[in-house]
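Internal ticket #5521
Category: modeling
Description: The requester needs a full-assembly model to guide mutagenesis choices. All entity lines are attached below as received. Residue total reported by intake: 582.
Assigned to: D.W.
Attached entities:
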Amino acid sequence: MTSQETTGDRQAESRRYSLVPLADQGVLVDCGETIDVETNRWIDAAARAVNAAAIAGVTGVVPTYRSLTVEYDSTTTTQDTLTTRLDALLATLTVASRRYRRFHVPVVYGGEYGLDFDDFCRRHALSREEVIALHTAPDYRVFMIGFMPGFAYLGGLEAQLHTPRRDSPRTRTPAGSISVGGQQTAVSSVEAPSGWHLLGRTPVRTFDPQREPPILIEAGDSVRFEAIDEARFRALQADPDWQPAWEWMS
Amino acid sequence: MASDSMTSDPMTNDAMKASAALRVSAPGMLTTLQDGGRPGQGHLGVPPSGALDAMSLALANALVGNAPETGALEITLLGPTLVVEGGNCAVAVAGDVEMLLNDCRVDAFCSLWLRDGDVLKVRRVLSGARAYLAVAGGFRATPFLGSVATLARAGIGGFEGRALLADDRLELAAPGSGQASVGRVGEQHLPQREKRPIRVVLGPQAAHFARAKQARFFSAEWAISTLADRMGYRLTGPALASAKGHNIVSDALLTGSVQVPGDGQPIIAMNDRGTTGGYPKIATVIRADLARLGQMKPGDRLRFEAVDVAHAEALWRGRQQEFQAYLERLSG
């Protein structure tokens, strides 16, 4: 396993993974129980390589923190053929540093927009300003899009803000919730149940079926939070044409 | 693009077309527009949705001359009452249902010609959980990511992104078509008639469970609880404790992934599932048994049987070939 990626842009990475059958529906390229940037970058590269290879019978590719699910149609190919092909592809996989987008996501923290914010501050013995400063400091990597359409799981949360999930999940949390669960933070996309701590809300619609593209942020992109006040939140939310700023990063 | 002279005639034509519809007099328990779904969008967090019993969907469509994955109404247990408005249309239902046309019993698996003002009432599903009502030419709906399948949770697909409500007007994409198919009769193909265990391939996280727990998974009889919907079925039976805990770093779910949360009671992920999940998955249902699984409902009992991948693939390939050939005979 490589623990650093400073040795160059392109490097064939030999990485331990296993290929696990998902019945006759898919193959799981599994890197095990891990949440780290290097693994996630390798998976992102693997997803791109599988897509680029346009393997006959492959019907979908789902990258997550720690694995890549490759779905296939067994009337077109067999799992035997597919796993041979995947092994060959992954053996020579290079993890190139690639361009990605950094989204600026405004957040109104606390109050009715972040029901758990005050408790969260007390729990960590931090002031509101300190929590906001810590939460808006990093460029978060989008480790995966999952659970709901456009729901972005972000890695890189300051260790001081890591917080076990709530004992009892809420049955409804609003779209655009900015929350913390364990060592992760997230941007939610549609109203959904959640056991995470709600810190605030963003007017960014990461999922909008009327927009092209409907899903704004993808795995491998990054997110920077910026604190805004309630008035600004309302103004942005009321503007149907507003979209968050972003720039290319490399 | 279009000249003035071109827009005037089609407008009258469009106005006529727009007037042909099925009006929902009663929506039934849960009636949604479903098609072949939107597979391959898991990387966007979008589940496939689509008909839980894809075979019955294909059959209903074939009976009115549609392509197999055309959008049709998925009826759950108690069916809708529909009134034809502003035109005629050919419809067919695939499923084990009790159904009335203007208060007279009519058969499923048979293409019917409905006239303006006719009332079609699907009273209930007799065996299984679902039936599919297809109309020749399909319903008018706006696709999302290539599919009109309803995903109510995200408000996409179908009619306004939700299940049918009373007084909805379901516009037809090609009213008056399909007359040639009228009287076409299909076999009473019902996946729920196949009484055998649901076949699975172990994994991907079967190793989280001790051998004895894996054995229990296969020896137990499971009941589908009342928490069973298009997202997933919760089962009740012996608790399957995981030796490594019940949280994993999230990975993808497929339709038929059998997750085991902390209470040890498995959940089978279905078409409207979340695309990822954080519980270990003891097994994955094979494709050949998904349609039959899709016909199950609360209170039904089931067992699991392990098969290997090659066997699962052979079963699916054989079944698909046979079914495709049948659909072609039916349409031809």
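Resolution: model delivered.
Comment from assignee: Chain A touches chain B through 47 residues (CB under 8 Å).
Ticket closed.
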